[in-house]
Amino acid sequence: MILLDTSAVVYATVDSAKLSVRAMQAIEQADQIFISSISIWEIGLKVNQRKLILPLSVQELVTRLKEIKRVAIVPVTEITWLKNVDLEWSHKDPADRTIVATALLLSCPLVSNDSRIQQFYPQTFW
Predict the structure, then answer these.
(1) Three-class HEC string of 12-63
(2) Among candidate residues 9, 34, 33, the one with its CA nearest the CA of residue 19
(3) What angle do CA 95, 96, 100 make, to 5 degrees?
(4) Total of domains in the chain
(5) Residues whose CB falls within 8 Å of the CB of residue 126, separated by 6 or more in sequence, listed in order
(6) How confident is the model at residue 106 (pLDDT cuts 50, 70, 90)?
């Protein structure tokens, strides 16, 4: 069981060559892959702002992810938000904070190439 951060979701679905060998192996071997729904929001924002170009719509990406049996998109609930605001972490990005809160709540490793996340959440790898 692993949780992917937003860039790991994008790389795994659109450009797997950008994944590290360790991240690729973890994704291939995971029996359960979690994605926070805030990653869908973040991908949508980046596409709308033209900071990210995908070869398919965000809706199609979500549809494809939901078709993969070992992938679960985890909703951001009030429990997640409470964990988010309780993090003793100065990082202000709401998506990163929510993804870390989700990993903590699921008690699972997080796949992320973000050095700030790696420094804060010890179960992060790339």
Answers:
(1) HHHCHHHCCHHHHHHHHHCCCEEEEHHHHHHHHHHHHCCCCCCCCCHHHHHH
(2) 9
(3) 115
(4) 1
(5) 20, 22, 23, 111, 112, 113, 118
(6) very high
Joined tokens for residue 74: 């985890």
Please state the rounded mean pLDDT for residues 79-89: 97
SS3 82: helix
CA–CA dist 123, 107 (Å, integer): 9
Q: What CATH code is carried by the domain that includes residue 84?
A: 3.40.50.1010
The letter for the amino acid at 12 is: A
How large is the average pLDDT for residues 97-105? 98
pLDDT one-digit tens code per residue, 5-48: 999 999 999 999 999 999 999 999 999 999 999 999 999 999 99
Indicate the Cα dihedral angle 63, 39, 103, 106, nearest 10°: -30
How high is the pLDDT of residue 115? 96
22: domain range?
2-125
**Would you tell me how many other CB atoms lie within 10 Å of the CB of residue 101?**
24
Q: How far apart are CA 74 and CA 59, in angstroms?
A: 16
